[in-house]
Amino acid sequence: MVLNPVISKLAGKLVVLASSSPRRLEILRNAGMCFEVVPSRFKETLDKRLFKAPQEYAVETAKQKALEVARRMPCDHRKTPDIVIGADTIVTVDGMILEKPRDKQDAYRMLSSLSGKEHSVFTGVAVVLYHEKENEEVDYQIVDFYEETKVKFADLSEDMLWEYIDSGEPMDKAGGYGIQALGGMLVEYVHGDFLNVVGFPLNHFCKQLDIIYNRSPSSSDAQHGSCRGDATPCPVSSTLLRPSTTHTAQPSCNKSGHAAVRHAEETPPLTTSRGQLINEIQGREFEDSEEARKDLQRIIPLIDGFKASKALFTASKFGMFDLLHRRPALDAAQVAHELKTSIKGTERLLEACVSLNLLKTQNSEAPVYENTDLAKRFLLSDAPWSLLGHIAHYNDTVWPLFNHLDSAVQEGNHQHHKVFGKKSGDLFQDTIYSSQEIQLRFMKAMHSITKVTGRAVATAFDLSAFKTACDLGGCTGTMASEFTRAHPGMRVTVFDLPTVIQMSQHFHPLCAEDRVTFVAGDFFKDALPKADLYILARILHDWSDEKVHALLGRIADACTPGCAVLIAETMLDEHSPYATLQSLNMLVNTEGLERTQRQYADLLGKHGFGRESRVHTMNFLDAFIAYKL
Ligand code: SAM
Predict the structure, then answer these.
(1) Secondary structure class of 453 (helix, strand, coil)
(2) How many helices (H) and strands (E) does the chain have?
(3) What's the CA-to-centroid distance between 475 and ligand 1, angstroms?
């Protein structure tokens, strides 16, 4: 691939994208780039009147977004990145700059101003590059540029405008349209880089990388001349941008540290006391250093992490948040009385919840407690986005399983037998569904997490071509409801084991949709309902490659060309703690595993599916679609 030599220059570097735009993420991922996403908190409020040309505004916004993240990451005790990329896309027409619409009326105003006319789409891009200096300071330079693409809209009728606005697509997009989806229908022609209109000028970006890494003998060349003279070297103080690896004592300390530790293990401390040894390894300089302080602040929260989870689980289990919703401003003794718990224990739990930002308190002398907005949104039983079902499953099933993580790592197998007391042939039928209580808890967990994550999956792709879908392992029908809500022409069949379909009636009122129907069966044995689109949400990660092939083979047999499989899973590409810890969860919990995008594409490819694309939904799930060829 032509671009690979450029992108591969970034291998081994910590590249950060200061944007959460799913479209930008997809463009860069499809180009094979590995990066971390740290959305910028820069408020896009620059005064447009101060800029001579609209592209200058886009470039400045991109620069401020990238700089905000570049400055914040080291202060947040995160690793200092090598590169931070910021981008901002705007649409301009008749001298006006159009950004994202505020509401439907604003979208209408924007789209009608584009109707029948040619307009410009500018994406400003800023790349912040770090350079370590010997004196522990860091220089960074900024390379910025923009790309312009001309787009002409057809004449849009009122009906067409409103139909498009009602699809919901315009709301998070500059100029109020997305050219890669339904908005493509409004466009007569495009002159220039299409991806620039989608949100990122990949071609121009690669050319700039080429200038920075391939053509210039030193990075200073990139600062001057070759980057259109825009590059700005910005020396900054070491307190703001101190790299975590430049401490002078550290390298020598590490080297002698390894040697000394090995020596200590091989030869018990006959001549050297433990204290002396540690001093030898670390040295006073390191103990007193800023770096030691930062390292401690990274490691201690990792050791302590489970305490926060358990405090949240316990407060949820006692119904503490529901109680403080019904009766705000209770003190610890009143809460203890209502929950029938000890005052001493309740006081500690309440204070822990305050420190975790789940509760707040007004009066520090005689504190009374109230829910924070975070608790109100996620921790009340009747909140639309209640995660209490998910939390109960984590407390009562996942937590006990994780207690056997050491055995799972030693044996390479799940630990269900230790928690459920049974050897399981089939994960679901022999264990989770062997007791009504555990089954209901599991189904409530699926229901609550899908309520929160489902919509992003259902809206990740343009699915207007599909009239019928089948949600395999669709459990309570919650995901199916999100699909019918997002796609008014679609009917969805939920297919799951008979015991689940029977119990799913507890949840029906919540997804009471006549376009959702339920069919009982075993997807490894029984005929699959006919559909144009097969949804597999959190299914494949439960199973070994062998079982996944068996299931995909059956789906492929039911599909004709043009049909598709839509997978929702946490994909392993980012190395985010969420994804890798979720993968450990799969180890203790199932016979399956989390996989990378490539692995899913390969599995599907073997069954005749291709033309795949992926959207990282920012809701902890990746959506992935592949079509039967
Ligand atoms: N798709 C749902 C979601 O994302 O919320 C539920 C995912 S849950 C991890 C796995 C689902 O697969 C469960 O509802 C389970 O009952 C279902 N399942 C497991 N084995 C099955 C089988 N052999 N046939 C049909 N469904 C099955």
Answers:
(1) helix
(2) 25, 18
(3) 6
Which residue of the set 76, 82, 88, 103 is catalytic? 88
The pLDDT value recorded for residue 270 is 35
Q: CA-CA distances (angstroms) from residue 575 to 36, 464, 578?
A: 9, 33, 8
- Identity of the amino acid at 575: H
The tokens of 401 are what? Answer: 């399983």
- pLDDT tens-place string over residues 301-328: 999 999 999 999 999 999 999 999 999 9
DSSP 28-91: HHHTT---EE----------GGG-SSHHHHHHHHHHHHHHHHHHHHHHTTPPPPSEEEEEEEEE
User: Any idea which architecture 291-386 has in CATH?
Assistant: Orthogonal Bundle (1.10)
Whether the predicted model's global pTM rises above the 0.85 cut? no
CATH of 3-266, one of 3.30.70.260, 3.40.1010.20, 3.30.1300.10, 3.90.950.10: 3.90.950.10
Residue nearest to atom 23 of ligand 1 (CA): 522
Q: What is the pLDDT of residues 556-607, one digit of tens each?
A: 999 999 999 999 999 997 678 889 999 999 999 999 999 999 999 999 999 9
The amino acid present at 316, given as its one-letter code, is: S
How far, in Å, from the CA of 459 to the mean position of ligand 1? Answer: 21
406-628 in CATH: which number? 3.40.50.150
Distance CA 500, CA 522 (A): 11
